[in-house]
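new request in #modeling-help
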Amino acid sequence: MRVTSSPARQPANRTRRPAHGAATAALRAEWVKFRTVRGWLIGLVLAGLLCVGFTFVVANGHHQGICTGAGNCTAGHPFVPNGPGGEAVADSYQYYTQPLIGDGTLTARIGSLTGVIYTGPANQAPSTAHTRAGLAGWAKVGILLTPSTRQGSAYAAICATGSHGIQFQHNYTRDQPGRSGTQTSSSPRWLRLTRTAETITGYDSDNGTTWRQIGTTRLAGLPATVDIGLFATSPVTYQDGATGAATQATATFNDLTFTGRTASGWTARSIGMSPRDYYPTLGAGSTHRSGANVTITGSGDIAPAVATLAGGSTASESLLFGIVVALVVVIVIATGFITGEYRRGLIRTTLAATPQRGVVLAAKALVIAAVAFTVGVVATALAIPLGHHALTTNGNYIFPTSTTTQVRVTVGAGLVLALTAVGALALGAILRRAAGAVTAGIIVYVLPNLLGPGVLGPGAPAATWLYRASPAAAFSVFGALPRSALVSYPFTLANGYYPIGSWAGLAVLAAYTAAALALATYLLHRRDA
Amino acid sequence: MNDASIEVSGLRKRFGPTQALDGMTFSVAAGTVTGFVGPNGAGKSTTIRVLLGLDYQDEGHALVCGQRYAALKYPLRRVGALVEAAALQPSRTGRNHLLWLARSQRLPTDRVKEVIDLVGLDSAARRRAGGYSLGMRQRLGIAAAMLGDPEVLILDEPFNGMDPEGIIWIRGFLRSLAARGRAVLVSSHLMGELQGIADQVVVVGRGRVLADATVDELVARAGSDRVLLRSPTPSEAAAVLQRAGARATVTDRGTVIVGGITAQRVVEVLSPAGVAFSEVTAQRASLEDVYLQLTGGATQYRAGTQVQP
């Protein structure tokens, strides 16, 4: 009944290159598939353009002005100094200083440290007319050495604080803690600051005879003549609520001992306390000297700047809406990359060509991740300078961001789009239908971003939770505002600080995508094609 | 070990309440064209999908080139398949469809041009596949199946939507493949399409093989059985023949279809009984008749439209 069979013919070997395995072949096939559908390419360009366009629109909607008198406003912003590292800083204090030529030492005993906190309405300029007694935790009084009293200059200081004990601080962001405990009249503190060439060393003592070194630093390029003197400053405190209240500190120094050469006598100066300076201060600074006692009253801070006080923004904040829009477009394309094959039965041709189903899904994921990453990086690289330009034109203060941060935001945008695209692809493989997959993709990857600040309100605990545990956590990669332990400030979502670290946030997004991909791989293997 | 190019053995598969495959067993040898026929829903496409590793069987095994399809490296170089001709991304050109398939098998780009020429699609290759007629899609699907110059070809309903010229072309093409030693499995729900090209025919219904034979054997089996009788008294003739042990049915047109005995024996029975007759013809059945006879009991949907004359 059967026809006699002839021996099976051996296939001709058509390989011209050495075989690198079916996986790279599948990858190349999926790339050809992607690039040969014009709608997808157009969609990607559209995603990039929308991202850039919305960044410009959002940035262009921000205006900052300085108003004098009744509604007479001009575009511009208060002065925010930059520290030696290029970071935005606060540099406002009362200073009683004299020049020091070459090496030398200044020693002083702190007799008392007291303060007041503004209690008047938040919408008025703080004045000493409405205050209560109280000392801000980061009120600082002590000895400060600086090559220049220009704001943002390098410095080193040894100081007593409201609640952080003795601190040796330098260049705004660095500190070495010393003796803890609060300054009182019954337990006085002696402070000493020494210059030896470019090296500054801080000491403290509780009796004026036995000294302990707290910290030392080298201020590179320190000129021969520097300013050395006593200072007092007291920052905005948030101990009474989210709004913040300006404070003032008063310190009495005794037993001032100066060794070294000087050119002229002591002078009192208020640094960074003029109306054009951004940092809110309470009252005018003052200095009184009677014999060996010097009383200094000051307000302000010498520390990294924080967002709401500086009133500034970053171009990366303007980027967020554009990224959300781009996410939607990328989700549509990424799901279509696989649901289109299910819709038309093409998936069977694909799996007949590459029976290793996991390899097919991995190849698709790599292709869609690569294109989404490219779109994210290119769009952000274009959007940030454009947003920066629009913000600057409208008089906005822009927080300076380091090159590292800019690279992190740009690469982060690529990673957010890529991880979302892979997740959407996985949802497409799970649900097999475009409508369902796009809906699921938007619910999982876009909705938390809209729900977070938009619906729940940035101050809501649920919004903070969303930015920790939902895919929206990855938006922390766009956080360009630095935090500092040297400032007592609510670093909250409402103030523009994300509740999770950049890479941890991306890891949360990656976890969602990995889970979707794992389920997709399992189902792809288990189900009939 | 069987040296068949395709070997299907005891396949069972259930989709919910439907037993799609119920012990499907057959094999296809190299150098032959095997027709795979049966009404819609008989399990042809499911069998082919199991063969290609797309659907998983509940029981049994399906081998191509002596292996599971999924175990083949660059499978399109060993097995070419046309599963669904309409399965194309509409905005991708025919050429680019073949290009990604070539990439997936590490085949040179030149091969794409070769198969486009082979199926006569060069004028349409650079147009979007969404604008193709079903016939052009079938040609593109055959081009895709031929891309790896495979030793085994599996074509599911390649004649669907083809114009007469295209059908003639495919028939010639399949014969030429078999002549060059390829094993060809071609499914159809129309037996007539396979007459003249299939060496072997596997007739299936309700998920199992009803007949597996050469075309001649099938025709002979059915045709030897039937005699057409014309008589002025058909009822009486039928009664006489039935008493003699034959099957006899009177048709609407007054003729009698006799089964179970030869034409010679009909004459021998009727003449002594004095029954008049004007014609006794031994009928040679067409492949289509055989098919109807075989699948009559196996057709799941008796609407009548799926089996066309």
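bot summary: Chain B has two domains: 6-220, 225-286.
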